[in-house]
Amino acid sequence: MRIFDYGCVKKGSLQLSINAIVILIMAMVVLGLGLGFIRNLFDRGETNLIKVIDNNQLKNKATYNEPFTLDSKISLKQGASSYILVGVFNKDTSSKTISVKLTGCKNKNGNPINTNANTGSNVGTGGSNDNADASLDIVFPGEITLKSNEATGFQGLVSVGKAIPTGSYLCTIEVQDETNGASREVLYTGSLVVEVTG
């Protein structure tokens, strides 16, 4: 008389092994799909930060008397990003095609630092910077045409590289008239202080 049937145990362990492999494969597929979804969500989220918005959404709206409004200060940790709001009002009697651009940033000693304005990145179209860890970048949407006495807002993206030293940086932002193509005229200039913390 046998107490244990070893043939049954072998079949059970083989079935358990196949089930474990199937579950492991399914878990890896679900994990891969989840990671892909999250990555896509973050990529889309950053792009959505760079857009043209209604002037009424701005806390500091652009008006005839104050045609260029700009957040004056932003604090970010190294390696972080946030949005910035800019308002523009067209005081001219005709339509203008305008763009908002970063023209450069300086540290507290007045020395220029690495930005997307001086590295050849596509400012206003979300271009990337090869030296992003040592850069402070501000990107705005591309050109927009404003009718006479019309205002709009721009939501741009401020990104601080991981290798940027902590401290204050003064960045210059311009509104340029792109109506005549190559002969760009600076309509307004403003300053933004970016406070970088560790």
Structure description:
Mean pLDDT is 78; it is low at 118-130. This protein has one helix and ten strands; from the N terminus they run H-E-E-E-E-E-E-E-E-E-E. The longest helix is centred in the first third of the chain and has 44 residues, at 6-49. By secondary structure, it is an alpha+beta fold. It folds into two domains: 1-49; 50-197, Sandwich (Immunoglobulin-like), CATH 2.60.40.10. It has one helix at 6-49, and strands at residues 51-53, 68-70, 73-77, 81-89, 96-106, 136-139, 144-146, 151-160, 167-177, 185-197.
The string of secondary-structure elements, in order, is HEEEEEEEEEE
What gross morphology would you assign? elongated
Q: Biggest β-sheet: count, sense, barrel?
A: 5 strands, antiparallel
Task: Please state the structural category.
Answer: alpha+beta
Question: What is the tally of helical segments?
Answer: 1
CATH class of the largest domain: Mainly Beta
Q: TL;DR of this structure?
A:
This protein is 22% helix and 36% strand. It is an alpha+beta fold and 198 residues long. Strands 1, 2, 4, 6 and 8 form a 5-stranded antiparallel β-sheet that branches.
